[in-house]
Structure formats: structure tokens, C-alpha cells
Q: What sequence folds into this?
């Protein structure tokens, strides 16, 4: 067996990978594993927590009086739509959900969207879609990013990823920190997935830079019973 790095190992030492999605399957094949994290450098970005909703989670201001601009930072990162689970770093989660409910596809939905209008960074939109069927699942991932330094056009990349026991894929918005944040490059990175949701949650949270990490959500979905085990870690609540 090749030595596949953990999500925490890939994130460790990277001061600012931005927002990230990891998807995979536990070694036993019993669980689908999902993680979503956010980081922040500005006071506005750091003033957030994850809260549970009826079909997933949403971001919310930790201190509403300090919220200056809700655009791009308040959205529903995790949503259910039938036998689909949507994970996204912005309100394209709503676009994907609407497309699926009307008979469209993940790709159709994202071809109507582009990277975020936050020059000079032009933050990529990253998304994943898990589809469960026959006590198993398959998943797709996508990144929409600027085709050049000026934001003149959008390049859209889609990945169909096999759900293999004990491994998954990680994608995040930025390669690393910088005055102008460089977009993630290449395909989603192969990562090892443990059997236990708490082990995975602690591993990812520990791998994120402690000065810039804000919130983490993880879910283990039992593919046979449909039971969900969720974890949420919010730095603002830890520090309160």
C-alpha cells in the first residue's frame, strides 16, 4: 500500500490554504466522510461560526454587531438535496441544489457561476457533490478559478472521483498565504481517511494554522443505515 498523507499532514505548515473540502470513504467502507473548513485574515472573515440547519450547516456572524459585509462569507456550505450532499465554499451550493431539484446536473449548475469577484485574489469557488445509492456513493469535485491575473475569464474544472476505501480527496482555495493569494493548482489531492470521525476532526483541526483557522465541520455518513455523525469546531466559541 502506498503511503497516503492525511489531510492534517497536507495542511500542516500552510499558513493560509483558505477554505477547503475533503471527501472520502473510511477504511472499512462503512462511512462516507465529508469535511469543510474556513479560515480568515480580516476581522470580518474571522467573525464567523458554523451552525446546524435542517439540511446541513450555514455560516453565521459570531458577533452580529461586528459584521460589516455579509457578501461572500454568509452562505450554506453543506446542503442535502434528495440522495445528494452538496459541499461548497459559497452560495453556489444554492445554485447546485436548485439545478438538481429541477433535473439538472452539478456541471450544469456550476457552468452558470464563476470565481468570486474579490480582486485581486479572485478566490476560486470549490464544490463537491456526493451521491448515495445501493449502500455506496460516488462523488464529484470542481474548482472555478480565474484564467488569468486580471479576472478576464473563468476556467472551470470538474473531477469524477472513485470512492475507494481508506482514501479521499482534498481541495482548497489557495496554495498558500500571500499579498495576492495564489489559487489552488492541479487536481484534488489524495488523502488518507481514518475510520473514526473524532480522529479525523482532531487531525484536520490540528493541521490548520492556529492563527487563521475559524471553523470546521465533519460528517461521517453510515452508508447502510443512513445515520449521520456530525462534528463542528468553532474557534470563536473555543476562545469565548
A:
Amino acid at each position: 500500500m502506498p503511503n497516503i498523507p492525511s489531510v492534517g499532514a497536507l495542511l500542516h505548515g500552510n499558513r493560509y490554504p483558505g477554505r477547503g473540502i475533503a471527501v472520502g470513504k473510511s477504511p472499512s467502507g462503512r462511512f462516507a466522510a465529508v469535511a469543510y473548513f474556513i479560515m480568515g485574515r480580516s476581522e470580518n472573515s474571522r467573525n464567523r461560526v458554523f451552525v446546524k440547519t435542517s439540511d446541513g450547516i450555514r455560516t453565521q456572524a459570531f458577533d452580529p454587531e461586528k459584521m460589516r459585509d455579509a457578501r461572500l462569507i454568509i452562505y450554506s456550505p453543506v446542503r442535502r438535496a434528495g440522495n445528494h450532499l452538496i459541499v461548497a465554499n459559497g452560495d453556489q451550493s444554492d445554485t447546485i441544489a436548485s439545478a438538481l431539484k429541477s433535473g439538472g446536473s452539478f456541471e450544469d449548475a456550476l457552468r452558470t457561476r464563476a470565481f468570486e469577484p474579490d480582486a485581486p485574489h479572485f478566490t476560486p469557488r470549490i464544490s463537491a457533490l456526493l451521491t448515495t445509492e445501493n449502500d455506496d456513493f460516488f462523488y464529484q469535485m470542481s474548482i472555478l478559478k480565474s484564467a488569468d491575473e486580471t479576472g478576464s475569464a473563468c476556467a472551470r474544472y470538474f473531477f469524477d472521483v472513485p470512492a475507494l476505501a481508506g482514501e479521499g480527496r482534498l481541495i482548497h482555495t489557495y496554495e498558500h498565504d500571500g499579498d495576492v493569494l495564489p489559487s489552488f493548482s492541479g487536481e484534488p489531492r489524495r488523502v488518507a481517511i481514518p475510520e473514526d470521525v473524532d480522529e479525523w476532526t482532531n487531525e484536520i483541526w490540528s493541521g490548520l494554522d492556529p492563527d487563521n483557522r475559524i471553523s470546521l465541520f465533519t460528517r461521517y455518513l453510515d452508508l447502510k443505515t443512513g445515520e449521520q455523525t456530525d462534528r463542528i469546531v468553532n474557534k470563536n466559541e473555543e476562545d469565548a
